[in-house]
Design a protein that fits this description.
The protein has 357 residues and is an alpha/beta fold. Helix content is 35%, strand content 15%. It contains twelve helices and ten strands. The strands form two sheets. An eight-stranded parallel β-sheet has the order 4-1-5-10-9-6-7-8, with helices on both faces. Strands 2-3 form a two-stranded antiparallel sheet. α7 packs parallel to α8, α10 runs parallel beside α11 and α11 runs parallel beside α12. The longest helix is centred in the middle third of the chain and has 20 residues. The protein is globular. The protein starts with 5 loop residues before the first strand and ends with a helix. The structure holds N-[3-({4-[(3-aminopropyl)amino]butyl}amino)propyl]acetamide and zinc ion. Zinc ion binds next to loops. Zinc ion (ZN) binds next to loops.
Length: 357
C-alpha cells in the first residue's frame, strides 16, 4: 500500500513579504521570518510523499472576516502606502512601517483617545511589538498565506485526511485586532473557520510552535466549539509572548476548559515535549477536525527558542496527532533555521501521513 501523498498548498505571493530587518530592543537586527523559508520548505517537500498545489488569490474571504476585526485588515491593507506617502524614507531611511508609540491605557488613561493621523503613531493601535513591520508586499503575502490555509481546509472538508498549508508570514500571534510576533493574519483560525463552514462542529487546535499562539488562544478563549491546546517554552522563563501562555489560563465563560497551555522549561527535549503533544492529542480526540499549528522552532538548532526537539521528535509528534484519526489541516507557523527547516516540516508531515491508512 502506497503512503498517502500529502497535499501542499502554497503560493508564490507568500514571498512578497521580506522583512529584512526587525527592531528589537531598539536595535535594527536581521529578520528571521524571511521569504527564503518558503523555498527551504518547498525544496524538502519536492518528492513523491507530497503533492504540490499552487493557490490562486481568493475572490472573497468570509473566514477571514469572522476571525479579524475589519479595522485591522483595513490598516494592514493601507499602511504601506500611508508610510510611503510620509517623510520616513527621506528623514531616516526607514521604508517599513514601524510603530513609534503604543496607545495602551498607560498612555490614554481613561481619556477619550482617537486614532492618530500620523501613520507612525497610528501603527501602535494594531501593532503590539516593534519587530513585525509592514512593507509594500506584506499585505499581499499575508492574504496569500490565508488563502493557502483556507484551500488546505477546503480540501480536508471535501474528504482529504490531511493537507498542509505552507503559510507565511505565520499567523498564530495575530489577535482579532492586533498583529505581532512576525504574524499579521491568523492563518490557523482561518482554517478552523473554513472547516466549521464545511460542517465540522467541534474543532481542536494543537499548537506545537515553540511559542504560545496568543492570537489563536485569544480568538477562541471564550468559545466552547473550538479547543486550543499549546505546548511551548515557558513564558515565565522570559520567552515570547511573555504575558500569556501560562498553565492556569484555561478559557472563560462557555469556553471554560477549552484552552490548555503546557509550558516547558528551557532545554526541554523530545521525551517531555512528546508527552505534552500526546496529552494534547488525547484531549482533542473527540473533536470533528484538527488544526495543527506546525511551528518547527522548538527544534534544537532554532535561533528563536531554547527547546531541544529533534526531527525524529517532530516525526513522532506527527504520528501522535495522526493517530487521533481526525481529518487534519497542518498550518505552517515558525521555524527559522534554514538548513534544517524543510526537513523538520517533512518529518512531521511524514509521521502524520504514516498514521493514515
Ligand atoms: C511565529 C513565531 O514563531 N513567532 C516568533 C515570535 C518570537 N519572536 C521574538 C523575537 C525575540 C527577539 N529575537 C532575537 C533573536 C536573536 N537571535
Ligand atoms: Zn514560534
Amino acid at each position: 500500500m502506497g503512503q498517502y501523498a500529502v497535499p501542499v498548498l502554497w503560493s508564490p505571493d507568500t514571498r512578497l513579504h521580506d522583512p529584512r530587518h526587525e527592531v528589537w530592543v531598539g536595535v535594527q537586527t536581521i529578520g528571521t521570518e524571511t521569504a527564503s523559508r518558503v523555498d527551504a520548505i518547498l525544496d524538502a517537500l519536492d518528492h513523491p510523499g507530497f503533492e504540490l498545489h499552487e493557490v490562486e488569490p481568493a475572490e472573497e474571504r468570509p473566514a477571514l472576516d469572522s476571525v479579524h476585526e475589519p479595522a485591522l485588515v483595513e490598516f494592514l491593507g493601507t499602511a504601506a502606502d500611508r508610510w510611503a506617502a510620509g517623510p520616513y524614507e527621506d528623514l531616516v531611511g526607514q521604508d517599513r512601517v514601524v510603530p513609534y508609540l503604543f496607545p495602551t491605557p498607560a498612555m490614554t488613561a481613561g481619556l477619550p483617545a482617537r486614532p492618530a493621523v500620523a501613520v507612525h503613531a497610528d501603527a501602535g493601535r494594531f501593532a503590539y511589538d516593534t519587530m513585525t513591520q509592514v512593507g509594500p508586499g506584506t499585505f499581499a503575502a499575508a492574504l496569500a498565506a490565508v488563502d493557502c490555509a483556507a484551500a488546505a481546509a477546503t480540501l480536508v472538508s471535501d474528504g482529504a485526511p490531511l493537507a498542509y498549508a505552507l503559510a507565511r508570514p505565520p499567523g498564530h500571534h495575530a489577535t482579532p485586532a492586533g498583529f505581532g510576533g512576525s504574524c499579521y493574519l491568523n492563518n490557523a483560525a482561518v482554517a478552523v473557520e473554513v472547516l466549521r463552514a464545511g460542517g465540522a462542529e467541534r474543532i481542536g487546535i494543537v499548537d506545537v510552535d515553540a511559542h504560545q499562539g496568543n492570537g489563536t488562544a485569544a480568538i477562541y478563549y471564550a468559545r466552547a466549539d473550538t479547543l486550543y491546546g499549546s505546548v511551548h517554552v515557558d513564558p515565565g522563563a522570559g520567552w515570547f509572548p511573555h504575558v500569556v501562555g501560562y498553565a492556569d489560563e484555561t478559557g472563560t465563560g462557555t469556553g471554560q476548559g477549552g484552552t490548555r497551555n503546557l509550558p516547558l522549561p528551557e532545554g526541554t527535549g523530545d521525551e517531555r515535549w512528546l508527552e505534552a503533544v500526546a496529552d494534547l492529542a488525547e484531549w482533542v480526540r473527540d473533536c470533528d477536525a484538527l488544526v495543527v499549528s506546525l511551528g518547527v522552532d522548538a527544534a534544537a538548532d532554532d535561533p528563536e527558542s531554547p527547546l531541544q526537539v529533534t526531527a525524529d521528535g517532530y516525526r513522532e509528534a506527527g504520528r501522535l496527532l495522526g493517530a487521533t484519526g481526525l481529518p487534519a489541516v497542518a498550518v505552517q507557523e515558525g521555524g527559522y533555521h534554514l538548513p534544517t527547516l524543510g526537513g523538520l516540516v517533512a518529518a512531521y508531515l511524514e509521521g502524520h501521513a504514516a498514521s493514515i491508512g
